[in-house]
Amino acid sequence: MIAALQGDLHTSDGVGKVFFREDSSPDILRRAAEHINRAFPEDDEINPTHAVVVTWVDVTTHGLESRGDSGIKKRNTFQLVIASLETTSYAIVLYPRDGIKFSSMLVGDTNVIMHAGFSKGLVQGFFGSSKGPHYHTTNDNEQSVRALAEETNSGLRGVWVYEIGTSPYFSNVAPGEVPELPTEAPPQEDADAYEESSAARRPVYTDGQTEIHPVQFQPQNREVVEVDDPIINVDVFSYNLGSCANNRNKCSKFGECRDYANGYCCHCISGFYGNGIQCVAEGKPQRVNGKVHGRVFVGRSPSPVEFANIDLHSYIVVNEGRAYVAISDLPETVGPSLEPLVSISGAIGWAFALEHPGFKNGFSIIGGEFTRQAEVTFMPGNEKLIIRQEFKGIDEHDHLIVSTNLDGQVAEVPLGSTIKLDPYSEIYQYNNNLITSSSTRDYVVTLPDGSRETRRYQWRETISFNGCYHSETLRDMKPTQMLSMDHIFAIYDPGQRLIRFALTSKIGDINGQPEENPCLTGRHGCDTNAVCKVGEGATFTCQCAAGFSGDGRTCYDNDECREDPQRCGPNAICNNQPGTFRCECEEGYQFGSDQRTCIKVDRPVDHCEAGTHTCSPHAQCSYTGGSSYVCTCLQGFTGDGRSCQDIDECQQSRCHSDAVCYNTEGSFTCQCRPGYSGDGFQCLPGRPKTRCEAHRESVLGVSGPRGPRPPIGAYIPSCDDNGQYEPMQCHGSTGHCWCVDQNGQEISGTRTGPGSRPMCIDHNTGPSPIGPRPRPDVDALTPGTHLLFTQSGRIEHVPLEGYDMKKNDAKPVLHLPEKVIIGVAYDCVEKMVYWTEITSPSISKANIEGGEPTSVISSGSLESPEGIAIDHLGRTMFWTDSAKDHIEVASLDGSNRRVLINTDLVNPRAIIADPSNGNLYWADWNRKAPKIETSYMDGSNRRVLVRDNLGLPNGLTYDPRSSQLCWADAGTHKLECMDPGRGSRSTVLERIQYPFGMTAFGNNIYYTDWQRDAVIAVDRYASRESDEFQPQKRTRLYGIATAYAQCPAGQNYCSGNNGGCSHLCLATPNGRSCKCPDNAAQVGCVEREY
């Protein structure tokens, strides 16, 4: 048992209240963690996972207080929070400075002092029950009770923290260790009383109990007070009984704190509206995002339709009172039946409704933190649905966050029906921290056969919130207001599994008001980032919202960061946002407890990742924790890791006796001597002439007195030591030079005049190194490599440490809450991330070092872009469109679009480019005939690579280092690889679940999985899963790509000067093609092939 304040207390006079609830919201758990960690600074950081909150507000005694009674009852206010995690629990007791008005009471004729503490109650023993262990935080002196609000054991006045063990055990009670107050030190004798040894901090019970202070009073009649109201939501830790001096940071950055006789309140500054804790700019459009969960019975169906974590997005044109709401991924078995419930979005309309003069919308009164619960009863079937919405305030992107839960039964609306809802009004009644409304609504259903039905449902709702009653704002709130809704629209799209609502809201007098003023009709012509100000009669003015400038008809965003680069303070970065800005701490810093000041974070240094290690260039650096690491020489080298010497394998006589051994760093090669042929391990006499040697001899075949002499002016080919054509050939007489392929054929467009030399790529790789080779897991990695993956509404990244995911450092790169992002690719040259999205089909990009997203190809010309690939050498991008059944290419700025493939495609999705070799690969998950295909990057030489034993090939990746093309199949549940040049195919992993996207880096393949909502790492050489990362947002993961700190080595014929092409340069294995965009006639383009 826990006694926050034990006494004969009651609430029967209607003034005092007791609230309790379980609350595991992130904000509550964060505040609890702050108190616990401040109270126990020497312990490991604690992060509770659950909390129970009990609040006593203005409670008094049954009788008179024992001292100083003047006929006016004194009242106490205090709070208890039990914060728990898996291994232990903590009690946090809060006593506001003005909250303890009495400390004793009269019980009969006896003056009894109140107490606080912990007790296990009666425990059963061998000889009956006895009083169990107990721990008291007060004694028989009234001063000890009053001190609860003045002193502390947690470093914050009036806040007491205790570790209390885990139910059902009562093993110990450990008080907080910080009795000092931040502004004034307690008297020495009091401070000494708190100094305890480490043994005292963890008391051990002797003979069944540890008694800190003797107990002299135990009430005989205990009373438990419950409030049977599931939507009560008293703000934990917030009494507003302090002053602005210590609470100013609780107000919005667009708010100000004001002191009142009984406490303080926050108010929004001019140009903003809200409750002071949450403030938004007047006239600025608002966004609302959240998740929807549901368990809904449709009609008389015996089985419910269940859905979880589906997205809700809303956009509100505030100066028109117009709200647009979309809920995605709704099954068609329930989607049409939710169309009549436009009031799912009604709270959003109420919060940002157009205001008649003298009236306030919801956000203006209570801000963005409230709970709304509605009960819908459909007539005449009496189906009932409960809608519960938790509005959780404004996030770091200035978006209002809401969680919606639907539970119950709805009247069935058949698929293919349409719904018509007439304008309606409902009266909102305001009373303290509760707002209620009710109404009856009619709607018309046009069934698929054309018949019509008029239906009806009853609606009751309550909105609970925690307001500040010290100021006049809530006291002056009108007790009734009327919300009017019109221009109502609701439709379910079965193809996209999406339901859309739209409505216009106004708040005003219950008796109605004329709406001739354009500000109240929406016909004002003000910019969407402006507020419409009502004037006399039909006059009005347009005024740009805070953070914007202009004449009101046209408004431009102000760049606050450019105007004042130092506004965020030291060690912080200012990021401009539309109408506002956001401060972020620099790397190595984090926000302090005030959430505004950036303080240095002392973290261990991973020298391997930072590149500050002292390992040899021929060694692998392995991080071992803290700031430690070890160095290990790569295979083919020997040493201590900090100094590595090459092993000369030629000293070991590894080659044939008729071969020459060439030692190389970390390896060696064997080459048969002239006159012999073989691989260097086996050499046989004689060797057939190569094409180059035969060509050369045919030219030199004319003999003269001094041996073979070529004709005057003839071209003599140059051969290397292996008899292969040198990549650059020159004419000895004319001085012209040109590049040739491995067959000696001139590559068009490379010939130069005398005195100039072309840059020719060597197609002849020479003899391959013969082991030992560096292991695949010891490639030196450049710092800063990480994974990018997409979810609906965001792109996130996970840094890589070697091949391991640094999961604790994962975070979103870009929030696009209104978008469904599918494919992602990375341009290592400009450090740009590219993505496809299908909500308003488009391709966009953004610099990962900062900057706004930029549209590359806008909606209208795309239908369903999914996979995307980047040629960082030729500066082009390729993508698949699963609706058009196309594969297209364009320059990276979106110009020069060209359709490469538009035949024999059914469901193209994944696409991969291999720029160095000029190849393109893609997967078609056509269920009837799935396949994996390839072509040159200009679309020529198309052919099927894999057709057999495929199911649903979703993911695709290519590793140029090992020349392996790998795919993940959601139908066969396999991860497989092959060498496209040789056709060899192997299984890497079986029994995977539902892969979507994939990428390769070093040893590992990383793929996203729809069933696990995770990024999975697979060691493809060990054929095992090595790691898993589940992002905080548990929704489907789509595309994934590797973002390299430095571009991979390689080049192609389009690398320089666009390959000499006027528009598109598309690489092939042996050259390039200059291609025209599809609008060639308009741009004056000529195609050529080299």
UniProtKB/TrEMBL annotation:
In residue numbers, the region (Disordered) covers 179-200
**Matches recorded under Pfam families:** EGF_3, EGF_CA, FXa_inhibition, G2F, Ldl_recept_b, NIDO, Thyroglobulin_1
Name the Gene Ontology molecular function terms of this record: calcium ion binding; Wnt receptor activity; Wnt-protein binding
Limits of the Thyroglobulin type-1 domain: 689-760
Keyword field contains Transmembrane: no
Domain annotation Nidogen G2 beta-barrel: ranges: 284-517
Residue ranges spanning the membrane: these are none
Q: Name one GO biological process term.
A: canonical Wnt signaling pathway
Main localization (coarse): secreted
* UniProt keyword annotations, A-Z: Basement membrane, Calcium, Cell adhesion, Disulfide bond, EGF-like domain, Extracellular matrix, Glycoprotein, Repeat, Secreted, Signal
| Extent of the LDL-receptor class B repeats | 831-874, 875-917, 918-962
Q: Which residues form the NIDO domain?
A: 4-167
GO CC annotation terms, alphabetical: basement membrane; plasma membrane
Matches recorded under Gene3D superfamilies: Green fluorescent protein, Laminin, Thyroglobulin type-1, TolB, C-terminal domain
Q: Where in the cell is it found?
A: Secreted, Extracellular space, Extracellular matrix, Basement membrane
The set of disulfide-linked cysteines is 730-737
Q: Per the database record, which ranges form the EGF-like domain?
A: 515-556, 557-599, 604-645, 646-682
Would you tell me the protein name for this molecule? Nidogen 1
Organism this protein belongs to: Oreochromis niloticus (Nile tilapia)
Write the lineage as a comma-separated list. Eukaryota, Metazoa, Chordata, Craniata, Vertebrata
Primary gene name = NID1
